[in-house]
Design brief:
- The protein is mostly helical and 749 residues long.
- It folds into 3 domains: 68-239, no CATH class; 314-481, Orthogonal Bundle (Arp2/3 complex 21 kDa subunit ARPC3), CATH 1.10.1760; 493-714, Orthogonal Bundle (Hypothetical protein af1432).
- The protein is 63% helix and 4% strand.
- It has 32 helices and 9 strands.
- A 3-stranded mixed β-sheet has the order 5-3-7. The chain has a two-stranded antiparallel ribbon with strand order 1-9. A two-stranded antiparallel ribbon has the order 2-8.
- The protein is rod-shaped, with a radius of gyration of 57 Å.
- Mean pLDDT is 83; it is low at 732-749.
């Protein structure tokens, strides 16, 4: 149940980090595009083939249609009919009056006005009765209307008519057959002035004599009241035709092929570009859910594969909240800072190179290398760079600069011996970033050099190296992570626990120094973490300081060397094994990291404490005791070494003890050293002490050679210094003078 809860917590933490990454990398919703006439803030490229209506072209075409569409003038055949009807009404009114019986002029006048809307005076009516043949007069007026005016265009607005005809937009509607057959449009007669003159001329043909002037005048008055324009501008029909022309107007299209630039930065937006930009926004809105799904899948795969890979590559990384946080947090920090930099670059309209330079991939590289190792550093740099670059649509220049900088940070931290190494790594990354920016600028035509960008590329990694210090402190304090810098501080000679060991157990302290020298050289020989080995060697025997006299390296007096003779082998072995337990408790009390504490039980593994095991067997065989001797009672509780580093300290501890008790500087040669070291390694190998770590036979061979080299330096041969020779007394003494004290050469001391 506890394992299940632990797994659920780890899963929850993993989901949280992945969700945070998704939110950080989420594509920004499509931004509103600039309207017509506004200035574009960036270059816009068509993602696909876009075909839009060219509103400018359509506007020009619509303007052309409005200028050239037909102005319809409709012929009104009813105008002649109404005129004839009015004339018949006038004729009927005149016929109703009988000149023989007397004419009621007023009554006829009123009837004419009522039925024909013709206004005549009493004198006009009286004149017509007395001086004209009324039937013939009226018939002639009817003929004028039917034959003469019926074949003419009587137009109220001749100026508009002629203007339409000059523009070639004139359209005649509802023409009679005789009009439709004409090849040319007859000249219009303007209403009323020209019509009046036309009527007067027609009447002059029938009444040519001067005495008939009054008849012509009355006839013209009757005709002008009866007739009306027979051709008029038809606004409704004109609007209908115009609307139809506009409605059936073929759209003017503008096509942007995929990859074609729609608009350049700083360019004013035209109508066609605005339509295309709207199309791009529509495509982006439709693609946004797919982009979001892609980011989720990409992030999920990247984080899960990273955790799985590191879990297989590093046995000390597990599926737990702490380890997941250590793995994911550097990536999340980089993604968050990268998104902020991306926002600032967009807000201040900076070059995309600023995003690449300011993306904190060097921070990821340095943190990951110091927390998880170089191999993990390469993985996290790749994951953070590719994830951010793909999710935010960065170009190849981003990949080049960030990968160069991230890998440079990892390579620069291959060996950390001092804190300033991190600052030097930042300096090297700055040089690499500057070189990358400079080389990329050479590929641009024309060549563009931004001195501010170059300065930022150099200084920013130095800032990140300082941030790395702060982040390391956080990781070390919150998660108990052991970093190389933390190990350097831990191995300082001023460490309180080491000072206590030196004061209380000077022999163990000297043994610790010897083990540390052997182990550190061996770790460097096979590429293990020599700083972790150094720290483990320093603190592997701190439990001995609580009962130092029970360990041979601290036994100085004869009484000290008899301390185990006063107790049974079982008690002795219990005391010896107890230094492991007490060492672990002491290490926890003084806050040592878990990776360093692991050296305390694992540097013995489950090896046999042979001295007291042999003593117990001797006592049993000599019948001093009847207790059966079990080998397991004389073995350390373990566990066996779980890492290469703890295995190195196990070998170093054993070999240091064996060689110290076997050799002195005057009794050592390389062959003996090689034989003893080889036997010690073989014994531990055959005892199965390396079954749970990744040491290979090649590693063991290289370790043997390293141990031999280090021991040769330790047990180096020195010349034997002779006794001071006896000399004859100085001449002054023989002669009874004063005594002269001889001076001894300091080099012979």
């Amino acid at each position: 149940m506890q394992t299940r809860r632990h797994g659920l917590r780890a899963a929850a933490v993993g989901v949280f980090w992945i969700a945070l990454a998704v939110v950080t990398l989420a594509p920004r919703p499509p931004e509103p595009q600039p309207a017509i006439g506004e200035t574009s803030l960036a270059d816009v490229i068509a993602p696909v083939r876009i075909e839009v209506v060219d509103r400018d072209a359509m506007g020009r075409e619509e303007a052309r249609v409005r200028e050239t569409y037909q102005r319809v003038w409709t012929f009104l055949p009813g105008a002649i009919g109404e005129a004839q009807k009015s004339l018949r009404a006038v004729s009927g009114a005149f016929a109703a009056g009988d000149p023989a019986t007397g004419v009621d002029v007023k009554e006829i006048r009123d009837e004419i006005y009522r039925d024909a809307k013709v206004l005549l005076s009493n004198e006009d009516i009286d004149y017509l009765y007395k001086n004209t043949n009324l039937p013939r007069f009226i018939d002639y007026l009817v003929d004028i209307v039917r034959q003469t005016l019926g074949g003419q265009f009587i137009v109220g607005d001749v100026g508009l008519f002629n203007a339409h005809r000059r523009l070639n937009v004139l359209a005649l509607n509802n023409l009679p057959i005789d009009f439709a057959g004409r090849s040319a449009i007859p000249e219009p007669i303007a209403w009323p002035q020209a019509t009046r003159r036309y009527v007067a001329e027609e009447l002059r043909r029938f009444y040519p004599e001067p005495r008939d002037a009054r008849a012509r005048e009355i006839g013209a008055k009757i005709l002008m009241d009866c007739i009306s324009p027979n051709l008029g501008f038809d606004g409704d029909e004109t609007s209908r035709r115009r609307a139809h022309a506009l409605r059936t107007l073929a759209p003017r299209l503008r096509t942007y092929e995929a990859g074609e630039r729609i608009i350049s930065e700083g360019e004013s937006v035209s109508a066609a570009q605005a339509a295309a930009l709207d199309g791009v926004s529509g495509i982006e809105r439709q693609a946004y859910p797919l982009k979001m799904a892609g980011v989720i899948i990409l992030t999920l795969l990247a984080f899960i594969s990273t955790a799985m890979y590191l879990g297989r590559m590093r046995s000390d990384i597990g599926f737990n909240p702490s380890d997941l946080t250590i793995v994911f947090l550097p990536i999340l920090i980089a993604l968050g800072m990268g998104r902020f930099v991306d926002f600032l670059a967009a807000y201040f309209e900076l070059s995309p190179l600023y995003v690449a330079v300011l993306f904190p991939v060097a921070l990821v590289g340095m943190l990951a290398t110091m927390l998880l190792g170089r191999a993990a550093g390469y993985i996290l740099v790749l994951v953070s760079t590719l994830n951010f670059g793909v999710a935010t649509g960065q170009g190849m220049e981003f990949m080049v600069i960030t990968l160069f900088g991230g890998f440079a940070a990892i390579v620069s931290l291959r060996s950390i011996r001092e804190r300033r190494d991190v600052l030097e790594a930042g300096f090297r990354v700055g040089l690499v970033d500057m070189a990358a920016v400079f080389l990329l600028a050479l590929f641009r035509l024309p060549v563009e050099f931004d001195p501010i960008l170059l300065l930022v590329a150099f200084l920013y990694p130095l800032v990140l190296s300082g941030v790395t210090f702060l982040m390391l402190r956080m990781f070390e304090g919150a998660f108990g992570v052991v970093t190389d810098i933390g190990l350097l501080e831990l191995c300082s000679p001023s460490n309180k626990l080491l000072r206590m060991l030196e004061d209380r157990s000077p022999g163990t302290y000297q043994h610790t120094l010897n083990v540390m020298k052997l182990a550190e050289s061996a770790a460097e020989a096979i590429g293990a973490n020599y700083l972790l080995v150094r720290a483990g060697a320093y603190f592997h025997d701190i439990g001995k300081m609580l009962k130092p006299k029970y360990f041979s390296e601290n036994q100085v007096s004869v009484d000290d060397k008899k301390v185990h003779s006063r107790v049974s082998p079982y008690m002795s072995v219990l005391i010896i094994k107890n230094h492991v337990k007490e060492g672990i408790e002491l290490a926890k009390k003084y806050g040592l990291p878990k990776k360093v504490i692991d050296f305390i039980p694992q540097h013995h593994g489950t090896s046999l404490i042979r001295y007291f095991y042999s003593e117990a067997l001797e006592r049993y065989e000599s019948s001093e005791t009847t207790d059966v001797v079990h080998e397991d009672d004389f073995r350390y509780p373990g566990p066996k070494p779980q890492t290469i580093e703890t295995a190195i300290v196990l070998l170093s501890d054993s070999i240091e003890a064996i060689t110290t008790s076997t050799f002195t500087s005057s009794r050592v040669n390389e062959n003996d050293l090689r034989r003893v070291v080889g036997k010690a390694i073989t014994d531990r190998f055959e005892d199965g002490q390396f079954d749970e770590c990744d040491l290979t036979m090649r590693d063991l061979s290289m370790l043997r050679e390293s141990f031999v080299r280090t021991l040769k330096a330790r047990f180096h041969h020195r010349i034997a210094y002779p006794e001071n020779p006896k000399r004859d007394a100085p001449r002054a003494e023989r002669e009874g003078g004063g005594t002269i004290t001889p001076i001894v050469n300091a080099a012979q001391g």
